[in-house]
Sequence to fold (469 residues):
Amino acid sequence: MNRIVMKFGGTAVATGENIRNVACIIGDTVKQGCEAVVVVSALDGVTDELSEAAEQAKKEKKDYIQAFKKRMLDRHGDAVDKAIKNPRLRKELEDEIKKTVDELEKVLTGICYVGELTPKSKDYVLSFGERLSAPLVCGALRDMKLESQSLTGKEAGIVTNSDFGDANPLLNVTTHQLKERLEPLLEKRVIPVVSGYIAATQDGVVTTLGRGGSDYTATLIAAALRADEVWIWTDVDGIMTADPKIIPSAKLLPELSYQEAAEMAIFGAKAMHPRALEPLMRENVPARIRNVFNPKNPGTLISSEQTVKRRDAVKAVALIKDVALINISGAGMVGAPGSYARIFDLLGKNGINVMMISAAVSEANISFVIHRNLLGRALSILEIALLGKGLVSDVAAEDDVCVVAAMGANMKGTLGVASRVFSAQARSGVNIRMIAQGSSELNISFVVKEKDGKAAVQAIHDEFKLDKI
Ligand code: ADP
Ligand code: ASP
Ligand code: MG
Fold:
């Protein structure tokens, strides 16, 4: 019998109708004789709303919290109405939702009173999206006369360190507990529905695995239970040559290696959380990215083997928005050992992740890319520490930029890829602000103005004829 872990993303469970559709997909899989463990994200947009509500609570906006509470009750109540027919089950779920939203209100009110939002309390707030969605999917399955039980990530046994906002699982204890708690349910033919994204420290404090983390929950479970496959159900047919919302002619990539998929995930092909592939690589569990709105399509298979060999060097192109470019210059950096180390040490110690770096041989300047929401903090840290000390004369930033990345395993050792990538940009009139090529040679990435992003992606897609694969 095949054991499958099935993860459903935010759009897949966005409404009551969608949740019913998801329950049917799970039901069909079980009827074909598979064992299924289900992992769900919050309803589409709910995590963003929770994040905003936490910020508003910090600003002591009590009215906002009341309106937000009503929105959450209405949205989830409406989903119950549409997803569940049995009146007794409906009532049960409505009560559960009300209880959970009341608890959320208390947490937000607490933040409001102290006027402070710590990473720990923020994670607690963010956990509510998945705490509400998992019982809903479980209810829809029970409504279809399938036995099911919902569990939070913590109840399922996922234990992390206390890096709130981006916590790392403690693998041994997590693996042990996942097996201990989920396998008995599977033996009793009960379908576990686990809330993705959220976990807890060893002391039971709620943590989150980083945005998009439900994928990671699913792969941790798949590796721990030695599943035959993990299916990541989303709103597109699979991993494509580019984001189909930007390039409509993008084509489905039927097979990818773990390395290629990881590279794409890191470079913003959102289809998967960047760390989600690690547990799969360790246990050699294949993943399939599939479309809930087109379940007949086999999707993209990600595994250690990649049977379809393609000659083309570039396989896909990604656009990463919401980034900012910082340029640090100063003649004082020339020949001064440790000047780069000082800059990156400052950023690292302050929790600012650097996505891309480029430095000129002259050493008179260094540029790097970070997430845009960290720009204000990064600039003030760098200015306070570096300016007026003889090393650095200027710290400048551009916040209207994006990163474009061309990717493919066959790029390694293929001559002329970079020249084709950049000639295509020149022909499209796109000006390049910064370039980086990883020495892994799996990607070439560069920074352009945000307004040129789409044209830059299109130029590469056309140059390498990605719509003809
Ligand atoms: P989910 O809510 O299911 O986790 P995500 O929004 O995280 O879904 O990821 C799916 C989205 O990723 C798609 O809707 C698509 O717009 C975007 N995306 C970006 N690049 C790619 C790509 N190369 N292939 C497929 N989807 C992509
Ligand atoms: N709900 C979380 C988020 O929006 C986790 C996920 O969807 O994977 O980031
Ligand atoms: Mg996602």
